Amino acid sequence: MEHILLEIGLALVLIALxxxxxxxxxxxxxxxxxxxxxAVGPHAPRFGVLDFRFIVSAPLIDLMGRLGxxxxxxxxxxxxxxxxxxxxxxSIIMGGTVYMAINFTLGIIxxxxxxxxxxxxxxxxxxxxxxxSAIVAKVLVDLKRTANPETEMILGLMMFQDVFVAIYLSVVxxxxxxxxxxxxxxxxxxxxxxxxISGLLLLGRHIMPFLNRWLNIPSDEVFLLVLLAILxxxxxxxxxxxxxxxxxALLIGLVLAETEHLERIERLIVPFRDFFGALFFFSFGLSVxxxxxxxAIWVALAAVVLTLVGNFAAGILVGxxxxxxxxxxxxxxxxxxxxxxxxxxxANLAQAGGLLPVLQPFTALYVLILAILGPLLTKESKLxxxxxxxxxxxxxxxRNASPR
Length: 404
What we know:
Helix 5 runs antiparallel to helix 14. The protein is built from 18 helices and 2 strands. Strands 1-2 form a two-stranded antiparallel ribbon. It has helices spanning 4-25, 29-39, 58-78, 82-87, 89-113, 118-129, 133-142, 149-178, 183-206, 208-214, 220-240, 245-256, 262-286, 297-321, 326-335, 341-352, 359-379, 381-401; strands spanning 46-47, 50-51.
């Protein structure tokens, strides 16, 4: 463990400089952190005691990055409440179904047209379907859109996708690693995921008076320790049950949003959200080797185009069915574009199962492009909405002016 503190300090210096650059450019810090992480890592040179490879500290940085996802999702849950999601439950289920139907179908067709085998097709379908909860949460917070009405639908779609992840990962891992999968195993994953979600939400509502009394702790220090214990313990239980740990963190945030201590929780948790969240995106960049990306450029670019089209179309359709305006529907379609942690998990699964080697660089490049485009397109959603509105209006005027 020699020089581990020096490596961690060096990583924090790079992250801090990335933050300063993001402020100067008035741009999201997410893609900058990913690119900085890619520029260093195992393939980078070493200059004396300054080791930019981060080999010794890599496991610790990875762990802190995982905590970053938990804090991001926990905070996003705090911005809402169980009651709000319950009231929007039907529209969220319908919206999630529409989203999955469009994007999962495109994810199946794309590798099939490339002539890839069945297992590779199923892996790519998962890679191209699931949004990055961490990036979406970070962008919503950075752009101060958590109070927007359509953000409730975006949050619902994230929950819907997390349930899908729990089921899909169980099925695909069985097929990829052993060559077989069991319908009983898939059904048990569905039942377990739904049971954990409904159980936590119902329990939270019924014990709310107890939670209000129990969290009435005078000391901020002890109060924070209790929060961290609850958050990480529930996330750990979720992981043990093969349910995405981010989903557990989101559910805890939803439950605690109903308590009388919401403002105090948010005030204490924000520094952890920002610190560990930045480490997540930096660690994600460390996992991408830029030298391995060349052989998958065209395949990744084609997948990116399909994802942009599929997500935008799904967002517009979901927003329309839920009664949102075209502007709000555009926000939905653009915000959920980013891909991240789940795509990387599936790529690692494909590598462990001995699938086509191209899947690793394909996933890295695909995720990198969308991790950059996602925050950028979300930030410029007003400009995109305005441009599309003018285009549709011009087409409508042209059609009305044409001779009959």
